Inverse folding.
């Protein structure tokens, strides 16, 4: 296990190092698919320059990262490349552990279900390679490589999220709350991961999810206290570092009110560029609620499966967030091998992967036609953005359906019979 | 959502698609070809119309009087050109200054990667002269360009004369709201490239030029004039630019409108427009015109000096004066009036030309086919690839004893082919592609030392040699497959699935950027991608595969193009032309950054090699 992983690490680092040195790095760092106004390294450098001059980095409209990031890079700017490498690679090793712990759960499942469902439960041999596959999916994913070479701070966010997963799966409540709070502090949206984290801990500590139980509420209060406490500490720390509250509107206001309509792979820019100004607030609310709203139905449906819920939430965030980049997409794509046991129930995987592949190639082509050749226009680019997101949504819903279907088969047996004895099929309507 | 979630209907659809795969593919192919041929049929096309409001409704008068004087200036220019033996820079500077322009010169030099035998040049040194007429009526933030090439020999002297004549006349008018730049460029496209790079402060091709001393505003439109005789019978409009980019259709409309107004015969691709669209000969005339445009666009070359402007978002076209044996002649004054009218309309522009189409084909100057009409032709071809991919996917996923919809038997043994068996052909064919791209220019000196060939021949022949050597590939790689013993049946299917999807994405992107190139490649590559398996008769299929390979496509295109131009060539001449086309392609890439050569070498050829590989799969 260790040897292939080391090999993988070496390959991944070599690819990145080679790209850092090549002339492509500059080109990649400019791509709108790879960097967003929040995560662009160029903007971080600008913020650092302002900070060095003794001006608040938020005084202009360039820098939108959080104060902690800028102070971190204040000390690390010379080693920026290394930092990104480390953050990425750390990320992987973490994921690797995440999956190790998934194994235990599957072992538990084995003796609970009818005999003919047994083939649905993964054998330990299959599970053995999953961490490696996850690491491979993340490290060799072109999306991650691009995002790392562009020095997008998205890599750091992903690392924090991965740490959160690790600590959650390990069952460390305090660390989990702290990392979740760090992720939230970075980009608000991970707040929706609160629900799966709490559900996971409750499942682990055998606390029933019941609104009438005191223990349930007590746990929620505990977790929220830790979470909000550390959030409070972080926000105050930022305030003391900067000496002003400038950063709140500049970071969170920027994320929530979406003033920068640079095209990206998300859904916001085109709508808000086209919209009449007086509808803006309304649609802003509609679009932002999208990210948070799915937490409720998903948590109710998946309350027994918090880890899958986490995956779903992550995907929803990266699809509906205001400034998505391919780095965000790569994070949840890396989790796909964890659900490799669902593959037999996936229905549209071929279609979806073709569309995702074609879209990723078409992004730069249409961008070229729009911006450089001037012959196409924004509609072409947005069409591809839309298709890309539809494909992502199909992918996620396909996995969701497959998961539910597997659950159904686990309890009802794999070969369903109708009452008259003929073979039955499941239809989702 | 019904189709995506209802397993019964899905199963029915998929089984229909797999059962009827071959017939559907054949139908799609012929439907695509038929659709494409139908595009030239006049009732299916749209009439051109002026979309740009600023150019459509405003009236201008053309009063340019001084055609004869312009021709006299042209003769004087010719005399000085002969005396200096190149561009008469001092004479031009003085003349432009006399006409009240701000005059600047730019010198440039460029060493070609290998000698260009068509134009007989290797180390190119030259000077561009340009004069700026400052706009009296507006803040000089925008500009228009009129250019004429200073070509060797006797050609294009009249164009320079007319340019100077127009400059003198324009100088006395007060309505100019945009700077007008009069440019005489030496060494046609190389000079133009130097000037444009200097104007926009870019350097994309590693050329050396002196910086420009004077600039106008941002250039909105440009016309390049080519005129080699005192009287002409018709004017030809050339639109195709670098990488098959076309200017906004409104520019063509503007030209057509003024030709109509002034009464000049106008052609596109050298073909007059005919009114008998319902007769066979009328239709074939339209097809010829459209096919010429398709061939020219597919070549990715700039077909006139305007071709490089398009890269900088500047709408540009070349206007060529043609003097044939027709009775009806047009003199220089009329051409001057036509250009005056066009510039006055362009002068009225409030924003860049953007209202009309950028993606179009023209079966005649008055009719066009827009992207919405011609894309289905390509789409029908691309669908074949997707259908084949779907078929392969189903074959890979459903061994006989399983039901669709994922519920499989326990004892199903998955023969997943090793990553290695699929990765090796991919990597090797791409490495061959890289060799094809990089080696010909690198190895020209070595080749010249060892073989009795010139540099240009060395480059072309090395390219052909590498291309042919690539065909030996399967024999080199199947030794690796022995390492992977598991299901070779599955192995080639996986490889073919990848290759088919790769081809689909590749052709799709190509067709978006350059429809003609994408379509021509699709015409030849799609059928071979659809039928190749290791089980078809080897020799015959190998022959078909070679015939349909990109290089042979190019060879046929050369003959076909000559045929369309009504200048058929013998096989010997055709072969020589073919060699020169390859060298031109490589030169275009290194001089102007044309993308066709790298596209073919780095992507299309490796993709074709994958299919070659599948045929010889062991």
């Amino acid at each position: 296990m260790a040897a292939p992983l080391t090999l993988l690490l070496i390959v991944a680092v070599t690819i990145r190092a080679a790209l850092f040195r090549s002339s492509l790095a500059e080109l990649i760092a400019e791509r709108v698919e790879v960097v967003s106004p929040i995560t662009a390294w160029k903007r971080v450098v600008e913020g650092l320059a302002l900070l060095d001059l003794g001006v608040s980095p938020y005084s202009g409209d360039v820098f939108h990262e959080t104060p902690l990031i800028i102070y971190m890079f204040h000390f690390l700017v010379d080693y920026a490349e290394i930092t990104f490498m480390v953050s990425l690679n750390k990320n992987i090793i973490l994921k690797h552990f995440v999956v190790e712990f998934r194994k235990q759960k599957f072992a538990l499942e084995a003796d609970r279900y009818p005999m003919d469902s047994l083939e649905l439960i993964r054998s330990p041999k299959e599970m053995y390679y999953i961490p490696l596959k996850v690491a491979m999916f993340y490290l060799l994913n072109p999306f991650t490589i691009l995002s790392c070479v562009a020095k997008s701070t998205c890599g750091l966010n992903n690392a924090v999220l991965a740490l959160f997963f690790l600590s959650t799966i390990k069952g460390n409540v305090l660390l989990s709350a702290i990392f979740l709070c760090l992720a939230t502090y970075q980009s608000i949206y991970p707040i929706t991961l609160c629900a799966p984290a709490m559900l996971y801990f409750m499942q682990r500590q055998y606390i029933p999810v019941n609104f009438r139980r005191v223990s349930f509420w007590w746990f929620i209060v505990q977790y929220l206290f830790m979470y909000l406490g550390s959030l409070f500490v972080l926000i105050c720390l930022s305030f003391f570092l900067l000496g002003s509250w400038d950063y709140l509107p500049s970071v969170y206001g920027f994320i929530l009110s979406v003033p920068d309509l640079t095209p990206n792979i998300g859904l916001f820019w085109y709508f808000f560029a086209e919209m009449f100004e007086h509808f803006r607030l309304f649609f802003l609310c509609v679009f932002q609620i999208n990210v948070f709203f799915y937490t409720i139905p998903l948590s109710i449906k998946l309350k027994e499966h918090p880890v899958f819920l986490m995956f779903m939430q992550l995907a929803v965030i990266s699809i509906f967030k205001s400034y998505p980049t391919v780095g965000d997409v790569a994070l949840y794509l890396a989790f796909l091998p964890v659900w490799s046991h669902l593959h037999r129930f996936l229905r549209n995987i071929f279609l979806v992967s073709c569309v995702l592949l074609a879209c990723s190639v078409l992004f730069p082509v249409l961008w070229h036609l729009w911006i450089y050749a001037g012959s196409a226009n924004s509609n072409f680019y947005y069409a591809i953005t839309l298709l890309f997101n539809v494909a992502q949504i199909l992918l996620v819903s396909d996995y969701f359906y497959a998961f539910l279907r597997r659950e159904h088969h686990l309890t009802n047996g794999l070969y369903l019979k109708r009452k008259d004895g003929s073979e039955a099929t499941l239809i989702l309507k | 959502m019904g189709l995506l979630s209802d397993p019964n209907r899905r199963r029915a659809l998929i089984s229909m698609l797999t059962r009827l795969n071959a017939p559907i593919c054949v139908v799609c192919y012929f439907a695509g070809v038929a659709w494409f041929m139908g595009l030239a049929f006049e009732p299916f096309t749209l009439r051109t119309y002026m979309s740009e409001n600023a150019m459509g409704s405003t009236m201008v008068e053309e009063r340019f009087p001084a055609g004869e004087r312009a021709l006299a200036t042209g003769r004087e220019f010719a005399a000085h050109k002969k005396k200096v033996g190149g561009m008469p820079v001092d004479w031009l500077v003085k003349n432009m200054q006399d006409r009240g322009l701000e005059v600047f010169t730019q010198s440039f030099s460029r060493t070609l990667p290998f000698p260009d035998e068509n134009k007989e040049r290797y180390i190119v040194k030259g000077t561009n002269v340009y004069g700026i007429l400052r706009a009296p009526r507006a803040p000089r933030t925008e500009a228009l360009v009129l250019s004429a090439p200073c070509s060797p020999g006797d050609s294009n002297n009249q164009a320079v004369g007319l340019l100077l004549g127009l400059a003198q006349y324009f100088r006395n008018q007060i309505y100019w709201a945009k700077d007008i730049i009069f440019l005489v460029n030496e060494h046609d496209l190389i000079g133009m490239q130097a000037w444009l790079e200097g104007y926009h402060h870019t350097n994309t091709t590693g050329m050396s030029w002196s910086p420009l001393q004077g600039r106008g505003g941002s250039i909105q439109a440009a016309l390049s004039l080519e005129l080699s005789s005192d009287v002409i019978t018709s004017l030809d409009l050339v639109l195709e630019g670098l990488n098959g980019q076309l200017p906004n259709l409104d520019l063509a409309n503007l030209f057509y409108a003024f030709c109509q107004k002034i009464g000049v015969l106008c052609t596109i691709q050298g073909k007059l427009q005919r009114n008998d669209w319902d007769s066979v000969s009328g239709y074939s005339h339209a097809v010829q015109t459209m096919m010429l445009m398709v061939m020219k666009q597919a070549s990715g070359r700039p077909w006139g000096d305007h071709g490089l402007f398009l890269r900088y978002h500047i709408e540009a076209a070349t206007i060529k004066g043609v003097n044939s044996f027709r009775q009806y002649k047009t003199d220089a004054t009329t051409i001057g009036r036509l250009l005056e009218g066009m510039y006055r309309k362009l002068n009225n522009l409030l924003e860049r030309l953007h209202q009309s189409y950028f993606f179009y084909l023209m079966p005649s100057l008055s009719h066009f086919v827009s992207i919405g009409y011609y894309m289905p032709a390509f789409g029908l071809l691309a669908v074949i690839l997707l259908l084949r991919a779907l078929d392969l996917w189903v074959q890979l996923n459903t061994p006989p004893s399983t039901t669709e919809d994922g519920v499989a038997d326990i004892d199903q043994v998955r023969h997943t082919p090793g990553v290695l068996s699929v990765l090796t052909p991919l990597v090797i064919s791409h490495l061959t592609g890289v060799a094809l791209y990089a080696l010909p220019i690198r190895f020209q000196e070595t080749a010249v030392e060892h073989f009795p060939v010139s540099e240009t021949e060395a480059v072309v022949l090395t390219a052909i040699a590498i291309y042919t050597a690539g065909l030996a590939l399967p024999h080199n790689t199947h030794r690796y497959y022995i390492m992977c013993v598991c299901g070779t049946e599955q192995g080639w299917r996986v490889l073919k699935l990848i290759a088919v999807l790769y081809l689909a994405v590749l052709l799709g992107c190509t067709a978006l950027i350059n429809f003609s190139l994408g379509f021509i490649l699709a015409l030849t590559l799609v059928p071979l991608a659809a039928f190749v398996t290791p089980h078809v008769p080897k020799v015959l299929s190998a022959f078909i595969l070679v015939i349909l390979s990109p290089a042979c496509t190019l060879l046929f295109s050369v003959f076909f193009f000559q045929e369309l131009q009504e200048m058929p060539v013998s096989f010997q001449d055709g072969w020589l032309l073919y060699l020169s086309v390859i060298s031109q392609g490589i030169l275009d890439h290194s001089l102007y950054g044309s993308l066709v050569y790298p596209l073919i070498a780095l992507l299309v050829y490796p993709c074709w090699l994958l299919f070659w590989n599948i045929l010889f799969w062991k």
Observations:
- The interface with chain A takes residues 4-8, 10, 245-246, 310-311, 313, 354, 358-359, 386, 389-390, 393, 403, 405-408, 410, 501, 504-505, 508-509, 512-513 of chain B (CB under 8 Å).
